Each structure stands twice: as C-alpha cells, then as structure tokens.
Amino acid sequence: MVKKIFCALAVLMGLGIAGMFCCSFFEMHAGAEREMKQAEQRRAEQEAAEAKAESIDYRAAMEDLIVEMNDYADAAAGRNFMFITNGGTGIYAPDETHPRDRVERLLNAVDGALIEDFFYGWDMEDDLPPPAEEQAEQRRNLRLVREAHRPVFNIDYTHKDSAVRGSQRKNKEAGFIGFAASRRELDEIPFGTIVDANARDVHSLGDVRNFIALLNPARFRSKEDYIEKLRRTDYDLLIIDLVYNDAPLTKEDVEALKVKANGGRRLVFAYMSVGEAEDYRIYWKDEWNKHLPVWIDEMNDDWEGNYKVRYWTRAWQDLLYGSADGYLDKIIAAGFDGAFLDVIDAYDYFYEKEGH
Q1: Which of 154, 199, 142 is nearest to 180 (CA)?
Q2: Cα four-point dihedral sign 285, 287, 288, 294
Q3: Which of 167, 235, 245, 269 is exposed most, by the fewest CB atoms within 10 A?
Q4: Is the pTM of this model over 0.90?
Q5: pLDDT at 192
Q6: Are 220 and 226 in contact (CB under 8 A)?
C-alpha cells in the first residue's frame, strides 16, 4: 500500500515538475518574443528618425534651438539671461543657404563666443599651435561676431610657462579674452597672477577682462572647499558646472560666487551641452545604459560617455528646457547669470555622417 502511494506521489510530483518546466519554457519563449518585438520597434523608430533627418537643415536646426532657448531663458529668468557658445564658429559665417540675416538673428540671441586652442593645444595635444590656415578660417568665421561687438574668449591648453606667457600676449594682441589651462579636464584653478585683475563690477560680458573655465570639480575635497577656493579668486567670469557631486548648486552657492575676492561683482555661467548627451548628467536614465533612445547617436571617441544627439527632436529639447526638470531651467533656478553652450558644432557631425 505504502509503495503504491509513494509511486502515485512520484507520478504527481513528476507531472508538477514537468508542468513547472513547461510554464518556465513558455514564459522564457514569450519573454524572448517580447524582446525581439521591442528590438524591431526600436530599429523601426531608428530608421524613421534617420529617414526624417534626411530633410533636416542641421545648421539651421542648431541656430533655431539656440534662438528659441534664448527667448525662453529671458522670459523664464525675467532678465537678460546670457549665452556664450563654444566652438562651431562656422555657424557665424554666412553662406548660400544661411544668409547674413540668419547669422544676425543668431547673434541677437548670443552674448559671446568661446573658441579653444586658437594658439596652443591643437588636435587635443597640449602646447601644439594650430595650422595657420585653421587660424585664418576661425578669424573669418568670427568676423560678424566681432562686428556685432560680441566678446571672443579663448582657452589655450599648455603646460609650459613660455607658452602660457605667449598665450596671454597673443590673446591680448588678437583682442580675445584668454585663459591658459594646464589640464584639458578643466578641473583646477591655475597658480599665478590673473591677467588684468580688477575690482570693477562686471554686469555684462563686455565688462569681462579675464575668466576661468572650471568644469570638473572632482579634485576638490568637498563642495565647501570648491566654493571657497573659487570665492578667493578675482576672475571677472566663472564658467563652472551646475552640479557638484550629483546635486545642483544652490542659489546661495551661486550668489556667494558672484563676489570677487576684492569685492567686485562678477558673472557666473553654467556649462550646458546642447549637442551631446552625457551619461553622468542628472537627466540620464538607467535604462539608456541598455537601450539608447532613438534620438541618441554615436559616442564621442574623444570623451567617453558623451553621445551625439539629434538635437532637433522634441525629446531632447524637453530635457534641455521648458519645465522645472529642464537642464536650462535648473541653471536659471540656481541664479546663474548665463549658460555656456557646448557642442553647438554637432551639425557638422550629421553633415559628415551623410557624406557632405
């Protein structure tokens, strides 16, 4: 009797295990099908986005984004919220499809232009001067910027004292406001005397005689150490990051930075990339580490974790501005005087991708 019961239980248990196995198998199969469908949907969306991109005027789309952001920022801040663009000077040069009136429209939305390695640091190599033809092209591109009386800032990258002195002299001769950075990471305050240090109050970029770009505060011991060391400087303009240790700076932090060590008032700008998404920014979602949204393109080979974006898409622009969670909105809420717009030359990437 016991033997029969045992055998019956064994049969039932076997059926149960088989049933569990079948359920697990079908669940796995269904899960695989779901993943395949999701992958197919993502591919279809990608293809649709790329097909749509064929009709995009990439340069005009970047111009429009900057102008629209400026209009929004002025209204949201209730004051003249300033923009400095970085690189991409070709956007200021008129051509057959982008006439002068479009450039002038853009310049009305921009308060200054920054370039990098105009004298030293060419091609990501510190101390290396650029080719003469590159400098000549940059000067041509900046002609309307200068005519519009917008200041031009330049960051040179150099370790040598002689090159630092050369950078200071050459920037002054060119009419640029220069900064010689010893580290490309822009993560330290240089030693030495600040060029043209003054105690005047600075209310516009036209008042600026010197500046520092310190975009990576990771080498400072704490936020308090970071803020205090910046406060002790006499730079007319600070270009810094919105965030310290994954948290935006407060309005109190930014207000403290607006006073130079000598008592004069200065400007404080926050970094903001408009042409790349960065996987260490506060807007980045964990799920993107597995599947990038269709509006995110390839990684930048020079900067790990930075991805070119289809900046004309609503999804990306919604992350940039238009709500309390927008990156520009957070910059405005923290009391910054303006934003430093990086990777405006993303339009070149998309032209090159199409073979233009």
Answers
A1: 154
A2: negative
A3: 245
A4: no
A5: 86
A6: yes
> What's the one-letter identity of residue 320?
L
Question: How far apart are the C-alpha atoms of 78 and 338, rounded to whole Å?
Answer: 13
Tens digit of each residue's pLDDT (9 = 90 or more) over 205-236: 999 999 999 999 999 999 999 999 999 999 99
Q: How many CB atoms lie within 10 A of CB 238?
A: 23
- How many whole angstroms separate alpha carbon 107 and alpha carbon 119? 24
Packing angle between helix 58-77 and helix 100-107, nearest 10 degrees?
A: 30
- Map tokens 């919604």 to a residue: 318
Give strand pairing partners of 269. 239, 338
Q: What is the DSSP string of 295-329?
A: TEEEEPTTSTTEEEE-TTSHHHHHHHSSSTTSHHH
Instruction: Please give the Cα distance from 300 to 307 (Å, whole number).
Output: 6
Query: Which residue numbers in the chain have pLDDT < 50?
Result: 1-15, 17-23, 47, 51
The span from the CA of 314 to the CA of 354, in Å, is: 22
Q: Side-chain half-sphere of 294: how many Cα atoms within 13 Å? A: 20
pLDDT tens digits along 186-195: 999 998 889 9
Residue type, 259: V
First-to-final CA distance of the chain: 86
Q: Phi first, then psi: give them for residue 218, nearest 5 degrees.
A: -65, -25
- The DSSP secondary-structure symbol of 79 reads S
Q: Provide the pLDDT for residue 15.
A: 45
Closest CA to 142 of 108, 107, 117: 107
Residue 22: its pLDDT value, please? 46
Contacts of 197 (CB under 8 A, 6+ apart): 209, 210, 234, 262
